[in-house]
Write a structure and sequence with these properties.
Largest sheet: none
Distance between the termini: 51 Å
Oligomer: single chain
Number of domains: 1
Shape: globular
Strand content: under 5%
Number of helices: 4
Length: 74
């Protein structure tokens, strides 16, 4: 069986995980949270890749808050 068959499933799982982490770290109304929610709910691989690129282009502090659970200094 071709490994590309599972690519959309794995991508959707990654997007879902980042969406949950972004909602927790940034709140439901943050642009990144909404981008990952839209990408996950649409199940569109292009939107999923765009959401990942949006995360990649975000400031380091935002990425750390989402990916590592690092809070902003008070």
């Amino acid at each position: 069986m071709n490994s590309n068959t599972y690519r959309p499933l794995y991508l959707a799982r990654v997007i879902e995980g980042i969406w949950i982490a972004a909602a927790s770290a940034l709140g439901e109304n943050h642009l990144l949270t909404q981008a990952f929610e839209t990408a996950f709910r649409s199940n569109d691989p292009d939107l999923m890749e765009r959401a990942i690129r949006l995360l990649g282009g975000s400031p380091d502090g935002v990425k750390q808050r989402i990916l590592f659970g690092v809070s902003e200094p008070a």
